[in-house]
Design brief:
The protein is of the alpha+beta class and 422 residues long. Helix content is 48%, strand content 13%. It has 12 helices and 13 strands. The chain has a 5-stranded antiparallel beta sheet with strand order 1-2-3-5-4, sandwiched between helices. A two-stranded antiparallel sheet has the order 6-9. A hairpin with a 2-residue loop joins strand 2 and strand 3. It is globular and about 70 Å long. The chain starts with a helix and ends with a helix.
Length: 422
Amino acid sequence: MARAAGARGRAGWCGRRGRCGRCGRGALLAFAAWTAGWVLAAALLLRAHPGVLSERCTNEKSRRILAALCQDYRGGALAGDLCEDLCVAGKLLFQRCLHYDRGKKVLQADWRGRPVVLKSKEEAFSSFPPLSLLEEEAGEGGQDIPEAELLLMVAGEVKSALGLELSNSSLGPWWPGRQGPRWRGQLASLWALLQQEEYVYFSLLQDLSPHVLPVLGSCGHFYAVEFLAAGSPHHRALFPLDRVPGAPGGGQARAISDIALSFLDMVNHFDSDFSHRLHLCDIKPENFAIRSDFTVVAIDVDMAFFEPKMREILEQNCTDDEDCNFFDCFSRCDLRVNKCGAQRVNNNLQVICDKIFRHWFSAPLKSSAVSFQLQLQLQEAVQECADPGVPSGNTRRDAPSVFWKLRRLLRATLRELQEAEK
């Protein structure tokens, strides 16, 4: 009897332990699923908003960064045509921190009464790998460095940034010269600048395009560009148009039409006027600004690529088309070889129509001066442009026709607005 009771007790305990074990395993599985869900959510959040982990932008830290830059300048480690104004003469004055983004520092300053932006991919000059030739050569002022070898290294760094082979005659913007006692600092600074793709793009394109910012000068690893108010999704018209002259409705409608035409001009320019097509893979209002004459300017080209480099970026392994999306630049997955196609299947115009023009032309313009029929045609053209609905790979074939249709309709809109003012 006692043995039976003991057996029942052990059986009961074992049963309870089994149930507890199953409960424990269930709890562990539930916890693992919960954790995986949060990890996935965090990954999606970071992909959509990579700036959420960006360092906090403060004026105090920005001043410390520039103070360190000037200390390196006084020590002879770096040079640049803006260093004297920044570090000695007090003619380049820090104003405020604009933003920090994954190491990149963007600061607003006043240069001899002109608002400018100081940019660098990294905070400290020492963050950039030094030029090996400077490390190897011990000659005073670096005069023993062979010019041909230096030219070869500069060309290689430019090719790495742009994905293009440039002739020696095209390397002028990046040639340091051999002037004065600060030549080693100039060369070290140039090397830090060449490791920043955006600086290389701006330097190359500034004399070729009205749609990019010119480089105004540099000091060490920081370079200066013109300050223009960036667009923002918080602006009703995406760009600050508060001071547009003319009637409130008609003035804004004219401005939007002019800006849209300038976007079309930029698209055509980037597609046709260089030796290779220039792809914009991060199209959003924040990456553009508008001059007073409504010219669109690309103020952030960290995600711009010429065709050869674009093909290199897109041609990756994949299991579906989603794996072939590089921000705003899409390719297709060839499931036979699990490889993304090297050719982009959408284009700059399509993304601009989707992310910019839809905002303006999906609803009637704020002006009764534009006929309803013309507004409807413009809405339909923007819809066709943003979502062409053609088989993959054919968007380029149809892009010219929708481009000219949009241009014709926008010019007709401007004519009607101008007629209404007479």
